Amino acid sequence: MPLLHFATISLLLGALLCIAVPGNRRRAAIGIASQVIATLLVLGAVIPVLGHQPAIVAQLTWSYPVDLILLRIDGLGALFLAFSMPLTLLGAVYAHGYLQPYFQSDRNIGVHYALLNLVSLSYLIIYSVENAMVFLLGWEIAALAAWLLVIWDYRNQKVRFAGFNYLVSTHLGLLFLVTAFLVLFSQTHSFDFSQFGVFLRNPGTTRNVTFLLLVASFGLKSAFFPMHTWLPRAHAAAPAHVSALMSGVIHKAGLYGLLRFTLLMATPDEWMGWFLIAFALLSAVTGVMYTAVQRDLKRLLGYSSTENVGIACLGFGIGYLGLSWHNPVLVVLGFAGGLLHILHHAVFKCLLFYAAGAVYSATHSVDIERLGGLARRMPQTAVAFLLGGIAIAALPPLNGFVSEFLLYSAMFEDSVLGGQNRGLLVLAATVLAFVGAVSAFSMTRAFGLTFLGTPRDPQVHEAHDPVLAMRSAFYVLGALLFVFGLIPQVGLALVAAPVGQFIALTHRGLDVAHVLAVPLALLMPVVAVSAVVLLLVGALAALRHWAMPAAAPAHRTWGCGYTEPLPRAQYTGASFSGHLASYYKTLLPTKLDRHMPQGPFPAEAHLRTHTVDAVEDRMFEVLDTGEATLALLAERAPQTPRIAFALGLVVLVATVALVLASAGGRL
Amino acid sequence: MKLASLLMHLLGLFLLPFLLPGVINRVKAWWGGRRGAPFLQPLWDTRRLLGKQPVYSTVTTVVFRLAPLVVLATTLVAALLAPMLPGGGLLPFPNDFVAFAYVLGLGRMFLTLAALDTGSPFEGMGAAREATFSVFAEPALFLVLGTLALGSGHGTFAELMRPHGWQAFLVTPLCVLALFLLLQIECARLPVDDPTTHLELTMIHEVMILDHSGPDLAMMQYAAALKLTLYAGVLAGLLNPIPLETQPVLAALVSLVLMLATAVAVGLLESLLARLRMRLIPQFGIAIAVIGFVALVLATTQPELG
Predict the structure, then answer these.
(1) DSSP string spanning B152-169?
(2) Count of CB atoms situated within 10 Å of the CB of A295
(3) How high is the pLDDT of residue A534?
(4) Distance of alpha carbon A663 from alpha carbon A182, whole angstroms
(5) I want to staple B216 with a disulfide (CB 3.0 to 4.6 A). Which of A285, A647, B212, B277 is the partner?
(6) Of A245, A236, A242, nearest to A158 (Cα)?
(7) Smallest CA–CA separation between A297 and chain B, in Å?
(8) Which residues of B touch A390 (CB under 8 A)?
(9) For strand A554-555 and strand A56-61, is the pairing parallel, antiparallel, or unpaired?
C-alpha cells in the first residue's frame, strides 16, 4: 500500500510542478518523470496481486459524508492498473513528440501533462475504491480530465463542439450511474460495494433494474451502440495520444465497472448473459460498419472502439451464461477472452492512433481521400499502421487473433447443454465472423488508401517519419503485438488472477494454474499455426531471393490501355466502400450532393458523398429538423472555452450536489 | 498408416492444384466443342512463369513483393489444417476451422493490399470487390462450419466431416450445397467471377493480380488453385462415405474421384451460366447464409443434443 501512496503523491506533485515551473521542455520532462515513478510504483504494487498474492486492502478516513474509504485492489483492479498506467506513460512520451510544435509557443504544455497525471490518478481511484461516492469522484476526474485533454486545440470551433458533446454525453452516463447507486443505496443504506454485493446476490426486479442502469451507464462510458455518438467526434478532435488513451485505456473503465458489479452479483440470471451478448454484438456490428465508410482516419479508429468493446463484452456475456449455467469452462473462456481482448485492444488501438497521429503531424490531414502513397515517405509509420490493422482485424499472427480465438472456442464449446443454446452461440459466432470480415475490409481500405498507391492530393505536405519520441511508441507497442500474439502465456498470466475471481463465483475452487490450463491448451496450437505462417513467409522470401538474385526491372503500373495513369483516378475511399454501404443504407445513410454533367457540352459538375452517423442523424430527425439542428448546435456551442468550462463545472456541481443530497437523506 | 495418409495429403497438395483447374478447363473446352489444353497445362504454365524475371511497378512498395509470399504461405498453412480426406486433417486441434478461415483472411488482406499498392484504378476496383464479397462469404462459411460442428458434436475440422443424428441426411446435403456455392465466391469461379474474361471492369480475382509477373504470378495462381483444391477437398470429405481408419486407400481414391467430380461440376456450371451482375453477388452470399441457417435450425432441433 505505501507504494500506491507514493505513486499518488508523485502524480499530484508532478502535476503541480509541471504547471508551475517555467519552460515547456522542463514541464514535459517533469510530467514524464512523475509518470515513470508512479508507473513503476504501481506496477511494483499490483504485479504480486496478479500472481499469487492476496488483494491489497487498506482503509482511509475522510470527512463527511464518506467517513471511511475502503480500498481494495484485487486481481481485476490490478489487471486494469497494470496496463493503464504504462500505456498512459507511453502516451505522455508520445505527446512529447506530438506537441513539439507547441514547445516554442507561449502555451503552457505543463497543463497538458498535469491532466495526463490526473488521468492516471483517476485509475488509482476507480480501480481501487470500494465506495460508490469515491468511485464517482474518480469517474468524474477521468471524465473532466479527458474532456480538457480533448479540447487542447480549443481555438477551433469544431474541437470545442466535439468536447462539449463529449462532456454532455459522459454526464448523461453519470446520471444513470448515480441513479443505479441511489437505487442500491436505498436498498442497502450504504455506499460500500461489499454492502451492495449482499443485496445484488439476490435475484429480483430491483436487481434487474439496477443491472440495466449500470449497463446503460458503463455502456455509455465505453461508447457502446447506440450511445456512441460522442465518440467519433471526440476522437477526431483530440490530439492523437489523447484519442489513443481515451479509446484504448480511459474508457475501459466502463467495462471495469461492469466486471466489478458482476463480481458483486455472483450469479447473474441467464437473461443477463443473452442480453449482454446481444448488446455487445449490436455494438460490434454497428461500430465496425461505420469504420468501413469513414474518410477521417481518426474517426474510423474511434468507431472501431465501439466494435472492440462490443467484442470484449461478448466474452463477458458468454461468461455470464457460464456463471448462470454453472459451466466453469465457459466462465474461463468467456472472461479470459474478454479480458485479453481489452488488453490487446489497448495495445493495437494505441498503436493505430499513434500512427494516425504521425500521419497528421506530417501531412496535417487524416482525410483518406486526400492521402495516398505515404508508405514510401513514412515507412515506419506504415509498418506500425499495417501491424495494428492486422491485429485489429483479428488476423494471425498478431494478438487480436488470440483473444478472438478464445471467444470462438467459447461459442463452439460442446459442453454447452441444449440445442437451442448451442445454435444461438453458433449464430453469435457467425456475427463475430461478419465483424471480423468487415474489420479486415476497413483496415485494408484505411491502410491501402492512405499508405499505398500514389499521393492523391499534391497539396498534402511532404511527409516523413516522426521524431524518436513518437516512434518509440511504435516500437514498444509493435513488439507487444507479437509478444501477446505468439506467446499466449504472457497475456494469460496477466488475466489469470481476475479470471480466477470469476471462477470462484462458481464455487469451484481452482488455482491459477488450472484456470490457465484450458485456454492455454486451446491457444498453443493456434500460435503454432501463426508461427508456421511467419516462418513459411520467411522461407519463401529466402527461396525467391536465392532463385532471383538479380535486381528486377521496374516499370510503370500497367494502365489497362491507358498510357497516362492519373493519381486522382485511383480508387477512393468512397468508391471502395460504396458497394458495401449501399447494402446497409439504414445503418449507413449516405448524403449525396450531386450535379451531374448534362447535354452535349456539359458545364462543371460535382459529386459529394458524406456518410453520416445514423443514430446522430435520427436523433436530430426526431426533433424534425435533421442536419439543420446539428449545424445550429455546433454554431451555438459555447463560443469561448471559458463558458464551456463553466458549463462543465455546473454539471459537475449539480452531480455532486445530487450525490451529496442522496447521502444527506440518510445521514 | 499415418505416414501413408500424410504422404497422400502432401502429394494431393502438390498435384491437385494443377490438375483441378486443368480438368475445369478441359470440361469447358469439351462443352464448347474444342479439344482443349492438356490436363496438366497449369503445371507447364507454372514452370514457364518460374523461369521468368518479374517486373515491378515503380509505384509499388514492399507490400507488393510480400503479398505473393503471404498469400502462398497462408494458403499452404490452411491446406495443412483442412481435411482433404475424410477424418484426415494433418494438424488437427480444437476449432482449427476458425484458424483455417482466419489464416486465409490474412492472405486475402495482402492480396487486396498488393492490388491497392499498384495505384491502378482497375486493381483497386478488384480489391474493393474481393473485400466486399468476403464480408458476405465469411459469415456464411462460419454458419456452415458451426452447423457441422454442432451436428458432429466435435471441434476439429476433420471431425466436422461426420455429422450424425437423425437429421444428418438433411444437414449434410444443405452444407454441401452451401460449401459448393461458397467455393464459387471464394475461388472466383462463375457465376461470381469469370476467370477467362478479358475486360478488366468485369473481373475480381484476375484484375487484382494484373501487375504480378514471373514467379510472383506463379505463386498467386498456385495459391488460388490450392484454395480451390481445399474447398473441393472439404466437399469430398463431407460426401465420402468410406471411413479412413479401415480402408485408407479406398477412402483416398473415393475422395480423389469426388474432388475431380467437383471440378467437373464447376466446369459444367461455367459452361452453362453467365456471370451474375456485380450488384447481385452480395445477395448470392446472403443466400448461402440462409441455406446455412436452415441447416443450423435443423441441426439444433436434434433431441439427443438437449
Answers:
(1) HT--SHHHHT---STTHH
(2) 21
(3) 94
(4) 9
(5) B212
(6) A236
(7) 17
(8) 106, 109
(9) unpaired
